[in-house]
Structures are given as C-alpha cells and as structure tokens.
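thread: overnight batch results

M.L. [08:02]
morning all. the overnight job finished for the chain we discussed friday. pasting input first so we're all looking at the same thing
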Amino acid sequence: MKSARGRILYIVAVTMGGCFEAEIGTHLPDGSTSGDDLGGARADGSALADRPPADAPPGMDASIAPMDAAVATDRVTPASDAPAGFPDGSVVLADGAVRLPDGAVVAAPVNGCVPMEICNNGLDDNCNGRIDESCPCLPGQTQRCYDGAPAEAGRGVCNLGTQRCEGPGEFGAWGACMGAGAPQGVRCGEGRDWRCNGVIDEGCACTPGMTRSCYSGPAETAGRGACRAGTSTCAMTATGAAWGPCEGEVTPVAGQCDGVDRACDGRPEEGCACILGRSRPCYTGPAGTEGVGACRAGSQVCGRADSGRTAWGACVGEVTPTEDTCDGVDRSCTGTASRCACVTGATRDCYSGPSGTAGVGLCRGGTQRCIFTGGASVWSACEGEVTPVTDRCDGVDRACVGATTGCTCLAGATRSCYSGLPSTLGVGPCRAGTQRCVVNAGASSWGACEGEVTPQPDLCDGIDRSCSGSGTRCACVATTTRPCYTGAPGTEGVGVCRGGTQTCVASGGTSNWGACAGEVNTNCLPCLTASGSPWQINRASGPVCFGRTFSVHGDPGEYALASIPPEGDGSWTAVARTDIAFAESSALCGRSCTCLDGGEFTFFQTFFDIPVGFTVSSLIVRIGSVDDGVRITIHNSRYPTGIVDPGSYVLLGSDGATTDLARYIVPGRNRIVLTHIDDCCSARSISGVSVNLNGGSLTTCR
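M.L. [08:03]
and the structure it wrote out:
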C-alpha cells in the first residue's frame, strides 16, 4: 500500500506525464492539456481560455481564474455527478478535498492552494513561493503569471505579469514573474478591489473627506436656544473608512440664569431670581432723602447665589444721609446746614503781634483755616505769622523796630586768627584758625580761635612741630622700622640664622634706632628636614642570609645585599626623636642563618640644604651606640646614586663617628641615609645620632 505522500507524488507524476509531447503543456486528469499560457486545449478540442469560470472577477483575463475555479473546472469531470478523479484513483470531493485510494483525505485548498504544482499554468499552485517549479518549458517561451496566492490572480489590483522560459538546452525553466500586481491597502472612494477578494472598497462606510451634519441631542431641541448641530467627517481607519465623531454640536444643558436658553426648551429664566449680569437701581436711605443734598441712589447687579442659582447683590454706589462736615455740602440731606461758623477748608488773613509791627523787619501776617471739630466748624489758630522776637545779630530785624543794636558782628560770620609768633605761621604744620561770631542775649562777639596749629615740641615723627623750618636732633622718624642683622657677615639666611627688625624710638625731642628684635645670629648652620620630622625610617627589607660567615659585627662586607629604598618610597615613616633612638627585637632569632652569616637591614634618611656660597669645612655623622653596625651614604646632585666613604662605617663597640665627609657635600639638597644592620639574634638598636657640620650639630628645621 502506497503512503499518502507517495500517492500525491504519483498524482503529480501522472499530471506531468505528457509534458514532453509535441506541445509543452499540462495534462489534466480528464485527458485535456493546458497550453504554454494560462489557457490551453482540452481533450474535446476546446481551449481552457474559452471557458472562464462563472465567478471570475471583473477585469480578469478569460484564461485565468481563481484557483478554486480552476480545480472545479479542470480537475472535476463535468459529465458526471460522481466525484472527479486522478489516474491512481484519487478523487476530488465536493468541498475541494482529495480522497486518496486508501481512504485518506487531503484537505481542501486554502486560498486556492493545492498540494501539488500544476505545470505551465503561470500560478504558484502549492503556494511555496515558486511558479511551475520543476516544469520543463521551451527556452524563449513566455506565459502570463501571478506569484501570489492563486485565488488572488487577476482579481482587482492583482493583475497578471509575464514570465519567460530560460535555459541553454532543449528545455528550460521558468524565470521570475515580472509585472504582476499584489493586494494593497484600501483607499476608499476609488471603487477598486484592493485586497483581490472580489469586494470593492472593502471596509469603506464613506469616502474620506466627506462631511455630514450630526446631532446627538433630542430631535426637538436641535436649532432651538443655544443648541445646534455639529459636523462629522469621513476618515480612513485601520480597516477602511468610517464617519468620525460629531464635532461642534451643542446639546441641552442645565440653565445658568444668564439669559441664554441652554436647556433649549424656550424658558431661559425659569427658576432664576434674576438674570446673571443684569443691574437695577437701589436706595436704602430714609424715604424723602433720595436726591436731596448729597444723597443719591446706587445700583445692584445680579450674581451667583450660594444655592447655585442667582440673587441680587449689594447696593453699590448709593449715598445715604451722614453727619454734616461744614464743607458746603448738605450731607444730612435735610436741605439746610447747622452749627457751621465757616465753611470747612476756607481761609482768612490774621496777625496777633503789636499794632504797627506787621510788615516791619521780619514780622508778617498769617492765615486762619476753617476746621471741622465736634460736629461744628471753627477758625483755627493763626498759622505762618511772624511776630517780634529778640534779635539774633544775624542782620535781620527780628524785633521789627526798623534797626539792630548791641551786635559787634553778625551771627555766623567767621574770620581768620593765629595766636603763635607771626614768623611761625605757615611754617611746618603751623596754620591759622577761625573765629566765629557768637550771639548771647541779643548781643554778639567774636569767639575763641579754633583749628589753629601753633609751635609744639618736636616728636621726631617726621613733622616740624616746632615750626622752625630747620633740622632737629632726630636720627630717625619715630615708630618707623627697618630690617637689621648683627651676626657675622655672610651668615644671614644660612641655616637658622635670619635678620630682625629695628624700630625708631623717640624721647625728649630726640630719636634713635632700637635693638634688633627677632634676629637669630648664632648656630648659623643648615637644618635637618625629612617631611616634617628630622629622620624617617624604612623597614621594607627583611632578613637575608649572606652565604658566608663574617668575623666582625657590622663588617662592611655585610652590606653587599643592602638596597637603599628611593627617597619617595611609600614605606618611609617619620621618626619623632632627633637622635633616632631605635630599638626592636631581632628578626634573626629562629632563622636558619646563624650569627654573622645573616642579617636584617633598617634604613634611616634625612635632608639638609647648603646655601650657595656657604663653606662646608667639616661634616661628621656621630652615632651614640649601635648594634650591630651602620653605614652612612651621601646623596646629592653630584652623587645621585649615593657615595660611601671607607670611613663611613660605624661598628659595634667603635668610637661612633665617621671620618670627615665634607668633600662629598655640594650646594643645594643633600640626603644622608643610614643603613643599619642586625647580624646576630640579640640586640637590634641605634641611638644618639647627630650630624655635625663645621663643628656644630645640625638641628631640626622649624
């Protein structure tokens, strides 16, 4: 029994069985043959192109029909009601499925697709993306074609294309389908089958851009009061075109008492105490006073009430009766004014001085003003008048008698004055002063001479206070300062030595320079510095074995394995004491190296600067005590990698001093490094270290 897959291949083979006869074509199950186009000849001599399917869409070429039509026409024998069959006994059922001889059923075509390819019909029958694959053809031959789903071929915008048979031999293969259409997105209003399914303008409820009137309120309210219809516009959607929302319409809402019929029922004022924004006259004063005197009516405006409706507001702008202010206005609105001696604000001339003095000298009249007080009006005091007073000797007739008496000078007048010897005036700081005219009890006289400077004893402050114009006994100007240094020439600025300051001191009309304060003129030597402390220690080196045994503790040969750390090495730490005083337990105890054939190195470093021109006559490094030995190395610009003198070693039990190392010292920065060695499991120490330069001990820089 053949498998279903085998039977399908057999059907394909039978279908292609006659392809190599005189005309290249497709042999169909009823014995007919399709030609090199999508039409062809049938067994009865008729052409396939002569009988297009009844349901072919408009515009489709008569030689091409959707695949479902092709199956119904080409594979079903129309002469009988029995199911169409294939040479192997396979039968096409009414729903398009294929029943194989063993009873298995192949599903009906989907979108026109069938399990096998039908040769030389220009369609992708099995929907695998290729047209008439494995079908022989004559090179140069052409046929109409469609490379989409067979059911779409020739429908709507899915127009047919053309493909050409290509190849160098007797038979070729069909090339690509050129110029065929494909389903497109719907563009409503053009009347076309965009999706190639036989439906014109699918999903289009209207033509995009069209508008129509719309209204969602009750029909009887449209066009009444504030209500009005809106506009809906047709627009494209994801599936076609549809009418959009109703825009611009106004439908009924609750009334707002604003005179507008918003409920659209013809009753805009229903339930309103008043119409919002309207106004009316009002008056709350006593009857008969409106329009009398200053009294007048105001107005009320309709506003929103707490209830949400409307109510009349307060009476604004009205003038009701008030107490009279004697300003000429009938504020009580009675038609008359009372208790008013004058009109408030009125003025008149006045003068209270002796008769005959008004207008004489400084005297003049004033003004009285009518004021309102206690419910009545009265004349105020005379303001602005000037009456006779005692003279001030200022040139003004204040007594208003026509003349001034007892005045030596005019008040406020000044004159120059000087009480010193005339010959000193204008010499040095001496200068004239000023006298002012002083008035007392109606009389005037010249006051004391103010601001004058007369000769004084000299203060040696650089000013000729005696106004003599000649030199004085002052050696210097008092309180001024100058730099000083009393040490030996050439020592200022060397080591700790520095200059001080002298201040000029004045006494008894003379002055002299005082003592030199703040100077340092002894022990003028450079000083030690090592990053804030006199010495630094470095324990970076661990115990080592020499490979031989020495006979002397601290023997110079033991330092062959010592490597001095760079001055900027991160293992350097400060040593607080100026003489080091280092003592720790020996790390050699318990080591494989015995006494004198192994050791541990500890390094100490310090720095000092030698000024240019400073003479170094001697430099000796002294060691108070050491166990087991120490070596001194000098580093500077001349010896950047260091220099060791044969006399630079201090051994256990020696006198504790190096030879004179002065010849290795240069101007500028000098670095001294002590390499301490412990070569036996016992004490490990060094102390009493000092650097002696030119016979003096270097101290820590401050």
